[in-house]
Amino acid sequence: MKKSLLTLSGILTFQLAAFAQQVAYEEYNLDNGLHVILHQDKTTPVVVTSVLYHVGAKDENPERTGFAHFFEHLLFEGTQNIPRGDWFKIVASNGGQNNAYTTDDKTYYYEVFPSNNLQLGLWLESERMLHPVINQIGVDTQNEVVKEEKRLRVDNQPYGNVFTAVKKELFKKHPYRWTTIGSMDHLDAATLDEFLAFNKKFYVPNNATLVVAGDFEVHQAKKWIQDYFGGIKRGEPVKRQTFVEDEITTQITATYEDPNIQLPMVLEAYRVPSMKTRDARVLDMISSYLSGGQSSVLYKKLVDKDKTALQVGSFSNSLEDYGIYIIYAIPFTGKTSEQVVSEIDFEIAKLQKDLISERDFQKLQNVFENRYVSQNDDIESVADNLATYSALYGDISLINTEIDIYRSITREEIRDVAKKYLKPNQRVLIDYVPAQQKAQ
Predict the structure, then answer these.
(1) Is 83 in the same domain as 208?
(2) How many Cβ atoms from other residues are within 10 Å of residue 53's Cβ?
(3) Treating both helix axes as pointing N-terminal to C-terminal, what angle do 118-130 and 218-229 enclose, rounded to 10 degrees?
(4) What stretches pass through the bilayer (predicted)?
(5) CA angle 143, 109, 316 (to 5 degrees)
(6) Ordered alpha helix ranges (H), 292-336
(7) Alpha-helical segments (H) within 318-428
(8) Sheet containing 97-102, strands listed edge to edge, beginning at the edge strand earlier in sequence
(9) Euclidean distance between CA atoms 195 and 172, whole angstroms
């Protein structure tokens, strides 16, 4: 009976995904190199204007880390036509909302307005690109804002430096070795000319993707886009350096001390391929199998059954050039990191040797079908996904077709990819411990 119910669930999920609405879009380039994507959806009277700049932490000078994230804040300071401090007031007074975020690979800005305010959204983003005011007052102000953010989200957050601990061990050549928020000492030492140069290099139309999504008229949008962005001068081509890491052939062990925790954590971290690869998608499925909820393999084994860990999880941090695959656990009181690692490795070894059951495989398929249905369930997500697939993956059609890759993954691939990448001699093993306490 349970098998029949599971099969029925799988059929219904597949049918739901099969009939999920395809995301229609139009894309073209302005003469200055700005890539434009239009997605019309009149079901809700809102419109999103967003701009993805293909610049993230990996594009920074190693002596000036944190610049990309800093600009996420700095470019809300104001423009030649928007007085300092008025950006958010303009958005709010016109019924809108806005935000931005930075990753290792991109910086993304967006506004959501009632559909009758598309022109305002386009003007705001064109002002950010064409007329930003970058002066010492703004730099000093945002320097303090970023420092406070780092204190709240990283320095004073329990386990807030996990990525700091992992990335510096996993990467020796690639700029992924530092975190997105960067170094406060680097920001303090930076000159105004350095900030101006960073803006001139990366915040140019030929390094940007503009998305308009929602309730709008295409012909009118195209006219306004040409009016507001067409006259912006093309920048110099952005030249990106390629960094190739040496293979890890012997397990790297390290200890990281965190003053904000009382319970130690053990981390297994693996350097894996780019998010654009098929293997990266297989690793996504492996992560879900190992730790996707309380019915997952690691949770049932370490937390429920053996009481070895208070918490256990895994995730794949997919990036443009490489990926980071992390398995973490907080040992139960009286248990050692070695015991936890031994149990995790035992389950991974089983995954590398045997095919997962048909039942578990069907559950995985259901998870990813549901994720496909939900990933574009609001217009803000659609805009973000369109920009990201276009700029970082180089294939905008993936917004509709990536699910087909997941559907085609086999149990044999799950076994083989686990065997290929999740080897003890290819990882970093970190004891993440309370400050002043040495690893057991």
Answers:
(1) yes
(2) 28
(3) 20
(4) none
(5) 90
(6) 297-298
(7) 337-353, 358-374, 379-388, 398-408, 411-421
(8) 26-29, 35-40, 208-214, 46-53, 107-114, 97-102
(9) 26
At 180-223, the pLDDT tens digits run 999 999 999 999 999 999 999 999 999 999 999 999 999 999 99
Question: Which residue is it, tokens 């007074």?
Answer: 93
- 2 lies in some domain: no
Q: Checking DSSP bridges between strand 427-434 and strand 309-318, what pairing results, if any?
A: unpaired
Grouping H, G, I as helix, E, B as strand and the rest as coil, residue 28 is strand
Find the largest Cα–Cα distance for the chain. Answer: 70
Cα 273 from chain centroid (whole Å): 15
CB atoms within 10 A of CB 136: 10
Give, as one character, the DSSP assignment of residue 119: H
Helices (H) and strands (E) in the chain, counts: 16, 11
Residue type, 314: S
Confidence class for position 3, pLDDT limits 50, 70, 90: very low
Condensed to tens digits (0 to 9), the pLDDT of residues 425-438 reads 999 999 999 997 54
User: How many domains, in total, are found in the chain?
Assistant: 2
Domain boundaries, position 404: 252-434
Q: Per the structure block, which two tokens stand in for 342?
A: 């031994």
> Is residue 92 located within the same domain as residue 163?
yes
Confidence category of residue 295, pLDDT binned at 50, 70, 90: confident
Mean per-residue pLDDT for 117-142? 97
Please write the tens of the pLDDT for every residue from 237-288.
999 999 999 999 999 999 999 999 999 999 999 999 999 999 999 999 999 9
- Ranges of H-type helices in 264-313: 278-291, 297-298
Domain-embedded: residue 32: yes
65 with 212, same domain: the answer is yes
Domain boundary among 214, 229, 244: 229
Length of the chain: 440
Residues 412 and 328 in one domain: yes
Query: Residue 78 and residue 392: Cα distance in Å, rounded?
Result: 28
**126 closest CA partner among 84, 85, 75:** 75
Residue 415: CB partners within 8 Å, gap ≥ 6?
351, 352, 353, 354, 355, 356
Q: Are 351 and 295 in contact (CB under 8 A)?
A: no
In this structure, the answer to whether residues 263 and 200 fall within a common structural domain is: no
For 359, phi and psi rounded to 5 degrees? -65, -45
Q: What is the pLDDT of residue 275?
A: 97
pTM equals 0.93
Burial label, 45 (beta-carbon count in 10 A; 0-12, 13-18, 19+): exposed
